[in-house]
Design brief:
- The protein is of the alpha/beta class and 288 residues long.
- It has a single domain, classed as Alpha-Beta Barrel (TIM Barrel), CATH 3.20.20.
- It contains ten helices and twelve strands.
- Helix 4 packs across helix 5.
Length: 288
């Protein structure tokens, strides 16, 4: 499915998640190195007053992307079409550059407070791909699905990689590449994270997530978004750029917020790694 006419150009650079707890603190700092911001539409649709005004001000200053929390692409019940129509109006209103969701499910006759892995089976590929196509039709734009972290794979018939590739192809959708999730899963399930990234289709990647996690044991990492990014994850991001170029990349932090200068230092680390992989201007012009 192609993008609708009038949708703004893709995002660039290094981004930061816009969380309500950060609205005030961010306003006290120079954010010139932040190229875009991401928010969860569920947390902002229908919000007015002071918070709605603050959102409007950030939307005027920064390109926005939306990363959904509750669409539940792998669930057995029908998609919430009313919610998707509300999302479409929100995306249009704020000229959101990309709408993404988790390649997971979080509901079955009611919402759960976790992202559950979709079984890695051919039947599940067909099921979730059909729902992604439906979501794209209702919202009028391509959907990017995120590779999630998972801790068990019940009913597994194919690898995580083959499942992700199968969904991207069958749904004709994009990928939100979460580098930290690749690192977490590679540790927990014993695969090579660089080989996983190398096998992904470059043309499908909309943008990238990077975040911190919690080390429960040597062979058990928990994706938390509540800590600083560690060196092996930075190195894996560097590898992804070597493979695909300096893709737009967002720093996720959902709790345990450090002082804003520490968050901005991580944003600057993204920018520094991106710069190492930029092609000279002459080379870019020759390639176009």
């Amino acid at each position: 499915m192609s993008k609708r006419p009038g949708i703004p150009a893709p995002i660039e650079g290094a981004g930061l998640g816009l969380r309500r707890a950060l609205l005030g603190p961010l306003g006290e700092h120079d954010l010139s190195q932040v190229g875009f911001m991401e928010l969860a539409p569920e947390n902002w649709i229908g919000v007015g007053g002071r918070l709605g005004k603050a959102l409007g001000e950030y939307a005027e200053r920064f390109p926005l992307v939306c990363h959904g929390l509750s669409l539940s692409l792998g669930a057995p019940e029908p998609l919430d079409e009313t919610f998707l129509r509300r999302v479409r109006r929100f995306l249009d209103e704020h000229q959101v550059r990309c709408y993404s969701e988790h390649l997971s499910y979080c509901s079955e006759h009611g919402h759960m407070y976790d992202l559950m892995p979709i079984p890695f089976t051919g039947e599940a590929v067909d099921w979730v791909a059909g729902r992604i196509r439906q979501a794209q039709e209702i919202t009028g734009r391509r959907l990017a699905v995120e590779n999630i972290s998972y801790y068990a794979a019940p009913g597994q018939e194919m690898s995580e990689l083959d499942f992700v590739l199968g969904v991207l192809d069958a749904a004709d959708c994009d990928l939100l590449l979460d580098v930290n999730n690749v690192y977490v899963n590679s540790t927990n399930h014993g695969y090579d994270p660089e080989q996983f990234i190398d096998a992904l289709p470059a043309e499908r990647i909309a943008y990238v997530h990077i975040a911190g996690h919690y080390k429960e044991a040597e062979d058990l990492l928990v994706d938390t978004h509540g800590a600083a990014v560690i060196d092996p994850v930075w190195n894996l991001l560097d590898h992804a750029y070597a493979r695909f170029g300096p893709l737009p990349t967002l720093l996720e932090r959902d709790f345990n917020f450090p002082p804003v200068p520490e968050l901005l230092a991580e944003v600057e680390t993204i920018r520094a790694i991106q710069k190492r992989h930029e092609r000279p201007q002459a080379t870019r012009q020759e390639a176009t």
